[in-house]
Structures are given as C-alpha cells and as structure tokens.
Amino acid sequence: MNNIILIDTDVILDLFCKREPFYAFAAEVFTLGDRGKLHLATTPLVYVNVFYILRKVLGIEKAKELLRKLRLIVHVIPIDEKMVDLALNTQFSDFENGLQCFTARENDIGIILTRNVKDYKEKDLLVQTPEEYLKALPIRNT
To answer: Residue 38: is its pLDDT beyond 90?
Structure first.
C-alpha cells in the first residue's frame, strides 16, 4: 500500500463547518497535508457531498471557494463502474462507504479517515478517525 490517505466526507465537513469536538483533529490532518507531510486524497463523490451540504449552509460561492482551496491539497481519485459494481454487490449497507472502500483498494490506498469507523469491516484497510490516526502518527510533532 502507498502512503496516501483517503479522506471521507465527514472529516472535510468537520474542518469547513468547524464541528466540535472534531474540528481540531481534522484541521491538523489538513495542515499536515498542506505541509506535504501527508498525502491526502478523496473521490469526486465526496466533493459532491461536501458541496451539497456547504451550499445550504454557506451559499454556493463560499462552498466553491472552500472546495477550490481543498483541491490544492487533496488529490481526486476516480470512481469507475468496477467500483460501483463491487459496492452494489457486497454486504455494505451504506453504498457510499462501499464506494469509498473499493476505490481505496483499487488505488492501493490502505487508510481511510472517517468518523464512521463502525461502518467499515474490511480487514485489508486501516479505518480510523482523524483523532486515532494522529495519536499514532510519528511525524505529528515534527
């Protein structure tokens, strides 16, 4: 597995909406990504989800502005029909989480950061909250 981390919707919303008590951990993850100490990625689906929520809270232009800034530090990885088929034909009760899981696998990503850890039962992926991930991260204080 490479050293890219897949970021889920809720973590980005924690950052942009400053949702407590999760904001500080999300902010630290994105700061490490901005400094080049972490390689962050997400899917187009996450951008759509985040935009949908932010536009209701902050308006269309502010939502786009925040997503443009996010794009500077978060790589977008594709979802294709193979991942859709896999997610549709598995035991994932949440289709979006299935897409995230199979997209991570297809792109050789071994870590997903989310607050929905319980929804992932995959043995070949490390699924953690930002807080859990940061507590175990050796570069955190460098």
So the answer is: yes
Residues 6+ apart with CB under 8 A from 122: 101
Q: Which of the 8 DSSP states describes residue 72? A: T
Helices 95-106, 44-58: crossing angle, 10 deg rounding: 130
Domain count within the chain? 1
Q: CATH no. for residue 123?
A: 3.40.50.1010
Instruction: For residues 71 and 44, give the distance between their C-alpha atoms in angstroms, rounded to a whole number.
Output: 11
pLDDT for position 140: 58
Selection from 106, 57, 111 nearest residue 77 by Cα: 106
Q: Could you report the per-residue pLDDT of 44-94, keeping only the tens digit for each? A: 999 999 999 999 999 999 999 999 999 999 999 999 999 999 999 988 888
Residue 97 pLDDT: 86
Q: At what angle do helices 9-16 and 23-34 cross, to 10 degrees?
A: 100
Where helices occur in 17-117 by DSSP H, the ranges are 23-34, 44-58, 60-71, 81-88, 95-106
